[in-house]
């Protein structure tokens, strides 16, 4: 099969997918051009309001980034999804167009790639909850770098199981699943995890919710003797078939990750809130509390792809921070706070009280308001043992988690 050099970009939100743009690749340049028919629609919206606006509608956008255009990369598989895609296709996609086509519209958001300008592939065959046990067996083979075809399943069944997980972002094992007549993401533990991540993330989401943060609906179940965290998709299960999503990484247009890049900060995300959110003030406050929570629970995996924006009102084209996801302690336990993926304040990526309040004005907060946010987070975390017990963790497991929690350093 020859390398794909051009495809069409569809918006799949209503009863009929809408063709929006043409996406092409001529090494080393990716090009993106809105279609005239799309621009003339009353419901047309820029896929990225900051980097792919309608201002240059008569000429293509260009980039030499190996990831292509960020908002389109958001709709492609990430680490885990790429592992499943490679296991399924036997041929690694050669460029970002091929990765977009491989996701078949199951990735986050409403963007779908197609080789046809008239239709998209309809891949609505989401696996059922009862099929998770077989998928778990497949993931165990893949984690051991073995061939999933060892399962000796029918080709169609294996394709279905792999496709459902192949569209997912992130590095951890997960897949799409139909549960209670809705689309959910099923997340699994890994054999080398330091603790039961499914149970801890479930507890973390419940604590975040009780802090007043916007979280995904989540349920903790068990399959094949293993805990499963089910997270309801926030970009599905809505009046529109799918909602539009953009990661903070894409909106900030990060071409190359550098820890000294000033864009790599919570303050930069707060600025994006002011640029695209309908209610910037409440979103900036929400972001600030999320930052405080990440520091207090040692969630140092708080990179820009773990923050995003959802067009929650597709008719009015109103954006807000997406519900919180991937929130749990990360890395090795330590006697002092580890550095975060993003800059927190004037003292860089170090999680201290002084650093957290040093740039509170960038979130639209004065010092008293910032301190109140910190107190809201800390008050709930003081009762973390209850949440962890409710998630099914044993007292010995909870004691092992204590080094991840940093509440004392934030008391003023």
**CATH-defined fold name of the largest domain:** Phosphatidylinositol 3-kinase Catalytic Subunit, Chain A, Domain 5
Main beta sheet strand tally, sense and closure: 5 strands, antiparallel
The arrangement of helices and strands along the chain is EEEHEHHHEHHEEHEEEHHHEEHHHH
Number of domains: 3
Classify the beta-strand content into a percent band: 15-25%
Number of strands: 12
Strand order of the largest sheet: 4-3-2-1-5
Q: Given the C-alpha coordinates, what overall shape results?
A: globular
Q: What is the arithmetic mean of pLDDT?
A: 89
How does the helix and strand content classify structurally? Answer: alpha+beta
Quickly name the level 1 CATH class of the largest domain.
Answer: Mainly Alpha
Protein name: HipA domain-containing protein
Family: Belongs to the HipA Ser/Thr kinase family.
Domain HipA-like C-terminal: 167-380
Keywords: Kinase, Transferase
Descriptive keywords:
Phosphatidylinositol 3-kinase Catalytic Subunit, Chain A, Domain 5, four-stranded antiparallel sheet, 12 strands, alpha+beta, Phosphorylase Kinase, domain 1, globular, 3 domains, 412 residues
Describe, in plain words, how this protein is organized in 3D:
The protein has 14 helices and twelve strands. With 412 residues, it is of the alpha+beta class. It is globular. A hairpin with a 2-residue loop joins strand 2 (18-26) and strand 3. The chain has helices at residues 36-39, 70-73, 79-89, 96-103, 132-143, 155-166, 197-210, 248-251, 266-276, 280-296, 353-358, 367-381, 384-390, 395-401, and strands at 6-11, 18-26, 29-34, 61-63, 111-114, 174-179, 182-188, 218-223, 226-232, 245-247, 308-313, 318-321. The model has no long low-confidence stretch (mean pLDDT 89). The strands form three sheets. The chain has a five-stranded antiparallel sheet. A four-stranded antiparallel sheet has the order 6-7-9-8. The protein starts with 5 loop residues before the first strand and ends in an 11-residue tail after the last helix. 46% of the residues are buried. The chain has three domains: 6-114, no CATH class; 129-232, Phosphorylase Kinase, domain 1; 245-410, Orthogonal Bundle (Phosphatidylinositol 3-kinase Catalytic Subunit, Chain A, Domain 5), CATH 1.10.1070.20.
């Amino acid at each position: 099969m020859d390398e794909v050099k051009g495809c069409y970009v569809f918006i799949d939100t209503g009863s009929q997918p809408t063709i929006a743009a043409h996406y092409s690749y001529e090494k080393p340049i990716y090009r993106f051009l809105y279609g005239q028919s799309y621009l003339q629609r009353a419901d047309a919206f820029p896929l990225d309001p900051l980097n792919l606006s309608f201002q240059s509608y008569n000429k293509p956008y260009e980039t030499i980034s190996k990831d292509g255009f960020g908002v389109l990369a958001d709709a492609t598989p990430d680490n885990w999804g790429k592992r499943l895609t490679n296991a399924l296709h036997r041929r690694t996609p050669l460029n970002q167009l091929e990765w977009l086509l491989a996701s078949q519209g199951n990735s986050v958001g409403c963007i779908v790639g197609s080789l046809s300008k008239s239709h998209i592939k309809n891949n609505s065959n989401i696996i059922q909850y009862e099929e998770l046990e077989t998928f778990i067996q497949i993931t165990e083979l893949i984690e051991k770098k073995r061939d999933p075809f060892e399962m000796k399943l029918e080709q169609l069944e294996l394709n279905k199981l792999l496709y459902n997980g192949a569209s997912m972002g992130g590095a951890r094992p997960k897949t799409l699943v139909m549960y209670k007549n809705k689309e959910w993401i099923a997340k699994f533990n890994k054999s080398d995890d330091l603790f039961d991540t499914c149970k801890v993330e479930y507890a973390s989401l419940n604590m975040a919710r009780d802090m007043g943060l916007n979280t995904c609906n989540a349920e903790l179940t068990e399959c094949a003797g293993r805990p499963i965290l089910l997270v309801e998709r926030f970009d599905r299960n809505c009046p529109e078939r799918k909602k539009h999503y953009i990661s903070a990484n894409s909106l900030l247009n990060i071409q190359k990750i550098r820890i000294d890049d000033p864009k790599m900060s919570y303050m930069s995300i707060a600025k994006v809130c002011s640029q695209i959110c309908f209610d910037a003030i409440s979103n900036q406050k929400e972001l600030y509390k999320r930052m405080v929570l990440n520091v207090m629970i040692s969630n140092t995996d708080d990179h820009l792809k773990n923050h995003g924006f959802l067009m929650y009102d597709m008719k009015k084209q109103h954006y807000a921070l997406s519900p919180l996801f991937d929130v749990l302690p990360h890395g090795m336990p330590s006697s002092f706070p580890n550095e975060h993926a993003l800059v927190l304040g004037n003292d860089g990526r170090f999680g201290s009280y002084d650093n957290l309040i040093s740039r509170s004005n960038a979130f639209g907060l004065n010092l008293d308001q910032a301190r109140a946010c910190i107190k809201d987070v800390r008050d709930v975390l003081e009762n973390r043992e209850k949440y962890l017990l409710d998630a099914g963790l044993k007292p010995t497991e909870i004691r092992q988690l204590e080094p991840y929690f940093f509440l004392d350093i934030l008391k003023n």
